[in-house]
């Protein structure tokens, strides 16, 4: 029994259930939103510390031995992702208190937020591929409902695109899981990793790899299947946008990292080239799309796409250092991107619009907000000594070591374009004087997303922004210890034997030898396999 | 049996994609429904179809005798059906609300968020 692995899933589920019990009590739901997410943060810290000292922590659900039951496993990658989930969860819990309109709170905003976090945590921790699908759906259904809370026209239109594309990806994922089970006869990812090397049809394995790549590529918003993201992420209430921007697409990237290091590591071949150029095109289209936009959250949405490219680039280069850089990029991006969305929410509260042309003068009015934006934006662009610089530095270095000069050059150019977009926002929102026609009095009554008055509680919005900006600086300052963790992740992902051993309980080669002598091809009709008497 | 199933599944996928490519949002949702059914049948078929051999252990034995069907894909399909049903219920409500707001059953009219 290792409760720390299950807690990050159970706690948000519990908070969600408690919040549902207090359906009519707004103060209670708000209390649970913060208390539950503090508990989640503590649990994720516990898991992180435990994983740091032990490497892998596994828990077999219901004590069923490994390939038969559902395994929960935390390696360093999962632990880091869970830690980020905890941090962002708490930041969102606090920020939501100030920004969520009463109308949204009444229709289950907080329970949905908890269930979304549970789905995200489950996807990060499961060691079973069908269970991964189930957690994806838990997360998706919660996100669907959050996306349309409020029911405005833009939300409905965005939601139709978001729902369709994500369901399509889910079905491709599910079909791939079915075909994979038909091919290897197991659903446990570690067991699949062992058995897939013994499949006679190399073509079948490639087909499966492509199906997983497309499915997770849609969910991660990679080129050419990213267009649902900029069409929908700017429509919901800003706290929801920030939560989606920070965590949801990263779950797709996480799944890509997991599947393409653990299961399909042998069959990369030309798939690696596809992924590499997919990553490059993702970076370029994202950043070019952002250049054409003048709406705060849409610019940021396109930059999510662009940054996803960097992460996938780390995976596609496929060296331990590149993978470490990719994970560094994921971690840094979760903090920074969430923070930028949160800041866009504050500027919206202050000036009543997301249109850059109508905003201005915030540098004079709120210098500290400007500093927080400056840190996050320049970190996103990769200016040293902020967190984004080190993420980019590691990926670029890995690219040069892998002699992928063209790709690396494009990655650097995209960084420059990112800087352009961020400077554009900086100029329009903070430096330029407020346009005459949109002169909002500073003491305008703040209102929730549904227009009803709520208390002016700006500190609840500032607190997460300041803390996350501080994180970005700290990640930059303490880049070395973080890089040590990232290197561990890179090594763990690059050599999945440790993962397999942690799940199945025996050394990987011994298990493989056992499989080869006992059942050369997994037989569909023997239930129980080689373990039962 | 398998070739027949394969044909049916292929037809389901094709119909689903065709429906999804049309402009009407109602047809889009029908397409999604067919798509999830196709995936469920695919799991059911690829995992191997064993006829007339339920995975039951005879009394007094520790494991089943002879060839039996694999119960796992059926559990998987069952889970997937439930999930698809829930998501479909959501999608139906969504298109109803979308129709109320946009006043058109036409995806081409939903371009507000694209520019």
From TrEMBL, chain A:
<feature type="transmembrane region" description="Helical">
    <location>
        <begin position="6"/>
        <end position="23"/>
    </location>
</feature>
<feature type="transmembrane region" description="Helical">
    <location>
        <begin position="162"/>
        <end position="184"/>
    </location>
</feature>
<feature type="domain" description="NADH:quinone oxidoreductase/Mrp antiporter transmembrane">
    <location>
        <begin position="128"/>
        <end position="413"/>
    </location>
</feature>
<feature type="transmembrane region" description="Helical">
    <location>
        <begin position="30"/>
        <end position="49"/>
    </location>
</feature>
<comment type="similarity">
    <text>Belongs to the CPA3 antiporters (TC 2.A.63) subunit D family.</text>
</comment>
<keyword id="KW-0472">Membrane</keyword>
<dbReference type="GO" id="GO:0042773">
    <property type="term" value="P:ATP synthesis coupled electron transport"/>
</dbReference>
<protein>
    <submittedName>
        <fullName>Multisubunit sodium/proton antiporter MrpD subunit</fullName>
    </submittedName>
</protein>
<keyword id="KW-1133">Transmembrane helix</keyword>
<dbReference type="GO" id="GO:0008137">
    <property type="term" value="F:NADH dehydrogenase (ubiquinone) activity"/>
</dbReference>
<feature type="transmembrane region" description="Helical">
    <location>
        <begin position="107"/>
        <end position="126"/>
    </location>
</feature>
<keyword id="KW-1003">Cell membrane</keyword>
<feature type="transmembrane region" description="Helical">
    <location>
        <begin position="276"/>
        <end position="296"/>
    </location>
</feature>
<feature type="transmembrane region" description="Helical">
    <location>
        <begin position="308"/>
        <end position="331"/>
    </location>
</feature>
<dbReference type="Pfam" id="PF00361">
    <property type="entry name" value="Proton_antipo_M"/>
</dbReference>
<dbReference type="InterPro" id="IPR003918">
    <property type="entry name" value="NADH_UbQ_OxRdtase"/>
</dbReference>
<dbReference type="InterPro" id="IPR001750">
    <property type="entry name" value="ND/Mrp_TM"/>
</dbReference>
<dbReference type="InterPro" id="IPR050586">
    <property type="entry name" value="CPA3_Na-H_Antiporter_D"/>
</dbReference>
<feature type="transmembrane region" description="Helical">
    <location>
        <begin position="69"/>
        <end position="95"/>
    </location>
</feature>
<feature type="transmembrane region" description="Helical">
    <location>
        <begin position="204"/>
        <end position="229"/>
    </location>
</feature>
<keyword id="KW-0812">Transmembrane</keyword>
<feature type="transmembrane region" description="Helical">
    <location>
        <begin position="241"/>
        <end position="264"/>
    </location>
</feature>
UniProtKB/TrEMBL annotation, chain B:
<keyword id="KW-0472">Membrane</keyword>
<keyword id="KW-1133">Transmembrane helix</keyword>
<keyword id="KW-0812">Transmembrane</keyword>
<feature type="transmembrane region" description="Helical">
    <location>
        <begin position="72"/>
        <end position="95"/>
    </location>
</feature>
<keyword id="KW-1003">Cell membrane</keyword>
<dbReference type="InterPro" id="IPR039428">
    <property type="entry name" value="NUOK/Mnh_C1-like"/>
</dbReference>
<feature type="transmembrane region" description="Helical">
    <location>
        <begin position="28"/>
        <end position="52"/>
    </location>
</feature>
<dbReference type="Pfam" id="PF00420">
    <property type="entry name" value="Oxidored_q2"/>
</dbReference>
<feature type="transmembrane region" description="Helical">
    <location>
        <begin position="6"/>
        <end position="21"/>
    </location>
</feature>
<protein>
    <submittedName>
        <fullName>Group 1 multisubunit cation/proton antiporter subunit C</fullName>
    </submittedName>
</protein>
<comment type="similarity">
    <text>Belongs to the CPA3 antiporters (TC 2.A.63) subunit C family.</text>
</comment>
<dbReference type="GO" id="GO:0005886">
    <property type="term" value="C:plasma membrane"/>
</dbReference>
<dbReference type="InterPro" id="IPR050601">
    <property type="entry name" value="CPA3_antiporter_subunitC"/>
</dbReference>
